[in-house]
Amino acid sequence: MSEDSTPLLAIRNLKKYFPIGTGFPPWKPSAHVRAVDDISFRVRSGETLGVVGESGCGKSTMARLLIHLIEPDSGDIIFDGMSIGSRDGLSVRSLRSRMQMVFQDSYASLNPRMPIEDSIAFGPEANGVAHQDALERSIDLMAKVGLEPSMFLRRYPHELSGGQRQRINIARALSIQPQLLVLDEAVSALDKSVEAQVLNLLVDLKDELNLTYIFISHDLNVVRYIADRILVMYLGEIVEYGSVEDVFHTPRHPYTKALLSAQPSMDPDNRRTTAPLSGDPPNPINPPSGCRFHTRCPVAEEACSEKTPQLLSSKTEGHAVACHLVNS
Questions:
Q1: How far is Cα 284 from Cα 61, in angstroms, rounded to an integer?
Q2: Of 85, 96, 225, 308, whose CA is between 20 and 30 Å from 190?
Q3: Closest to 224 (Cα-Cα) out of 180, 266, 259
Q4: What is the rounded CA–CA span in Å between residue 129 and residue 215?
Q5: Which one, of 121, 115, 123, 166, lies nearest residue 145 by Cα?
Q6: Which pTM was predicted?
Q7: What residues does each domain of the chain span?
Q8: Percent of the chain at pLDDT above 90?
Q9: CA diameter of the chain
């Protein structure tokens, strides 16, 4: 892949396994869930990276690793040229003043006993901003996300709709003036009309504040609208990585093709009568050998079950695929 030499965020060989069960001796786990398994990618400043894949593929775990809500087992997270957590690098506290996250559940993300004004002001105050300045920042951000401050500042989360609460969560994430936002299914719980409003808001804020997004979603149409590049995950690994145009118009990995073909068609003469994929994803505790997709792949060959494919650039510069059939 050909990318900028100094990306805003660089991920190298990131890995997270969750221990399960009790082995012998009792403190030794009997197995591990391979949630994120040796992934590497880069995010350029000012771009939106969309992350897609089926439920359980590791998208949300990856997001929590980036913001250090959970600690990685191995690998490097490099933000603006500085390694996170190293002695000479960037501390986790400093990272969170430059990278923030917006979660899927807009209600659970807010303190039900705290007025909206105080929720937004809490982050700046915790980072040393004076109380009055933090409140003024709350008012400014409320207006930026399209909510009238005089109407909403003293309300509580239960008094707001889902779309209004998600706007508050976006304002709260922006309150400490980060460079990068990680949006984990941030619009999936909203109805379509509100979803469109929040997406347009995110686009406007990105341009106005010069933000960078990592946008995680299972909705390919939403990702196609907002993203510049797309990362496709399957069972803890990256299987395809490229621009929106490359991934949507010339998908190369069989899994990506199956995801795209699963989208409902508005043309009654072009509707699918069979599922693009059969079966469920394999168990992440004991994933298949070789290519993890080979058990469901319609074009798999013998080599696919024997050797793990590498994520390599194919014909289009910057369009990387982990597939033996494409890279042979």
A1: 13
A2: 96
A3: 259
A4: 29
A5: 166
A6: 0.90
A7: 112-177
A8: 62
A9: 66
